[in-house]
Amino acid sequence: MLPEHPAFLWRNPEPRRRYDVVIVGGGGHGLATAYYLASLHGITDVAVLERGWLGGGNMGRNTTIIRSNYLWDESAAIYEHSLKLWEGLEDELDYDLLFSQRGVLNLAHNLHDVRESRRRVYANRLSGIDAEWLDADGVKEVCPLVETGDHVRYPVLGATYQPRGGIAKHDHVAWGFARGADRQGVDIIQGCEVTGILVSDGRVQGVETTRGTIHAGDVALAAAGHSSVLAELAGLRLPIQSHPLQALVSELLEQVLPCVVMSNAVHVYVSQAHKGELVMGAGVDQHVSYGQRGGVHVIEAQLAAALELFPIFSRAHVLRTWAGIVDTTPDASPIVGATPVDGLWVNCGWGTGGFKATPGSGWTYAHTIATGAPHELNAPFSLERFRTGALIDEHGAAAVAH
Ligand SMILES: Cc1cc2nc3c(=O)[nH]c(=O)nc-3n(C[C@H](O)[C@H](O)[C@H](O)COP(=O)(O)OP(=O)(O)OC[C@H]3O[C@@H](n4cnc5c(N)ncnc54)[C@H](O)[C@@H]3O)c2cc1C
After folding, report:
1. How far is it, in rounded angstroms, from Cα 319 to Cα 342?
2. d(Cα 235, Cα 214) in Å, to the nearest integer?
3. How far apart are CA 279 and CA 13, in angstroms?
4. How far apart are CA 272 and CA 257, in angstroms?
5. Distance CA 148, CA 151 (A)
6. Which residue among 75, 263, 355 has the greatest number of ligand 1 atoms within 8 angstroms of its CB, and so is best to mutate?
7. Residue 239 per-residue DSSP state
8. Of the N and C termini of the chain, which has fewer Cβ atoms inside 10 Å?
9. Ligand 1 center to residue 156 CA distance, Å?
10. Residues with CB under 6 A from ligand 1
11. CA 78, 84, 86, 89 torsion: positive or negative?
């Protein structure tokens, strides 16, 4: 255990020339992986290499929705494991994450939505996940601001409700994991871009970076939207497309929205941050891009959708908009596990919904790297599934985004 550094959350050490494990990407998933490698597996000779600053990628750009009500058993298991970790995370990291289990509504606007949503509620209950089906009156009770009248273009016929879902403050989560990892000896190195992956005889040897060559026993990619760029450095082609995903916040308002509201059909999701901004996200911009910006037409459609559900927000002003680059897979499920290169691991494909998975992803990835084999929770999420066809189609639950 290293001494605490009261003035800083973590040290900023010079990179050493060799580590047991090098993690590429200082977003939530990379930092959580480093933390659990150290705390659960005693592996502390670890560096997290981040080309920008910690949490400057999707980790600091997401709309922070947390839930575990995915359809298939495999997804429900890994997201529920993550939610359980969230429930003890503030104590574990001794850090205020503003984790708030205020509940998540997923609205249904037509008969198809109703059938799909109820099916998901039944599946979730079988997996031990808190899931309820609410009719329109039930929705109004949980969230009085949602417009449920018959006259609206997309009438609210009901919703799934997960009371344990909610939000957290994303940058606090990155900092909490970073501090926890640093205190156990992990080197967190910002401003260090990986530009090459060294492979010989089918085994990874280390990485080339803008701060010199760093050798490593294992190299673990956790680079979200840039995963396919990195994998290509080792000659691998990942089944990933990278798209901009936009979000926005309003000016600060009194606290009026008691829970998270999502709608796949109307295509928007809304929550209210502790500070008071309405936080809204949309679907991905359709074009493939690495620019962290998207088209105004998407924002326009997103706001039109939000006003369908919440006419009361019509006079709120947009404060700012932004985008992150999300890594989407053909089945809308993540990839966590081995690659054809020995000692090179991949954790990506969380797409529009990986914030909620931050602790669970780091926990399972750390297990995989430490033991050389996947945990049963992430075994189904192998790269192999795109060859065998054992896909885990979560387009329904991931839908509009996460
Ligand atoms: C607008 C938006 C809204 C979202 N809303 C939600 C939500 O409400 N709920 C939810 O669950 N999920 C949501 N997500 C998805 C979630 O943010 C991501 O799935 C998750 O953050 C990805 O993991 P990460 O935090 O490790 O990624 P990142 O924070 O993107 O980390 C990857 C890091 O790798 C670094 N990197 C890339 N290339 C290199 C290199 N060559 N060398 C070194 N470092 C490199 C990047 O700089 C970056 O910091 C949203 C995403 C966006 C963009």
Report:
1. 47
2. 19
3. 35
4. 6
5. 9
6. 355
7. S
8. N
9. 32
10. 24-30, 49-52, 56-59, 61-65, 193-194, 222-226, 230, 245-247, 281, 324, 326, 350, 352-356, 402
11. negative
Class of residue 340 by CB neighbours under 10 A (exposed 0-12, middle 13-18, buried 19+): exposed
- The closest residue, in CA terms, to atom 4 on ligand 1 is 62
Provide φ and ψ at 347, rounded to 5°: -135, 105
What would the two tokens of residue 341 be?
A: 């290169």
What is the Å distance from ligand 1's center to 381 Cα? 18
What's at 392, amino acid-wise? I
For residue 28, the Cα-to-chain-centroid distance in whole angstroms is 8
For 244-259, write each residue's pLDDT tens digit. 999 999 999 999 999 9
Question: Nearest CA to 62 among 152, 157, 171?
Answer: 171
Pairing state between β 187-189 and 46-49: parallel
Q: What is the pTM of this model?
A: 0.97
